[in-house]
Amino acid sequence: MARMSVDQRRSALIESAYRVIADHGVEGATTRRICAHAGMPLASFHYAFESRTALLCAVMETAVPTDIERMLHAVLPAADYGSEPGLETIRLSMVRQFHAFYDLLKADPGRMQAAIALGIYAHNHPELQQIGKHMYEQLYRVASAGLRAMADLTPIVWTTPVEDLGPLIIAATNSITLVYLSTADDKVVDAIIRSIADQLMSHVSFE
Asked: Domain HTH tetR-type, which positions (predicted)?
């Protein structure tokens, strides 16, 4: 194995921890298993992180928000609103965008499962609670930025601050994830998607 810098080791361990959590849960993400996934000896772990807790913090601070942002951005720019979109066009576009997110989820459900598992794990461990809260605040900001981008592409105005609507997006993606992981019921997911689109449209007006 080629010699790695500390930053390279940190990045490799963060990504491997995220993947191992996706496959084995937070409790199953031992330092030994994470190092094996990263292809590095266990003895090298402490060159990058002082503890497993420090690694979990890094995953929640960097990997999860970046991953969710990547998923949302993969959906939002592709929206086709037409030259003069009306309210129904925009609502249907929202529905399509959430379904596109659902398709990405089905292609790799473990990563969203890892994000939710980390949030729950952090809530139940006092040393991680503040980091878990900060992770969700970052996710809210990512979702709010997506709503702001939507307004830039259309003649709509959000009548409620996007900072207040961002949490609804994350709540919806979490709900979609949990339903898929529990039952894979496309009909229920579609109902959630249409409901959140209707709810978001209640906060819209035209310029």
From this structure: 7-67
Looking up tokens 């959000």 gives: 158
Q: Is 50 exposed, middle or buried (0-12, 13-18, 19+ CB in 10 A)?
A: exposed
Q: Which parts of the chain sit beneath pLDDT 70?
A: 1-2, 74-85, 207
Q: Sign of torsion, CA 162 135 69 173? A: negative
Q: Which residue has 């991680």 as its token pair?
A: 128
Indicate the pTM of the whole model: 0.84
- What SS3 string covers 24-82? HCCCCCCHHHHHHHHCCCHHHHHHHCCCHHHHHHHHHHHHHHHHHHHHHHHHHHHCCCC
Single-letter code of the amino acid located at 46: H
Listed residue (84, 57, 94, 89) closest to 155, CA to CA:
84
What digits encode the pLDDT tens for the residues 76-96?
654 555 556 677 888 888 898
Domains of the chain, earliest start first: 1-50 (1.10.10), 56-206 (1.10.357)
Query: Rounded CA gap, 58 and 10, in Å?
Result: 9
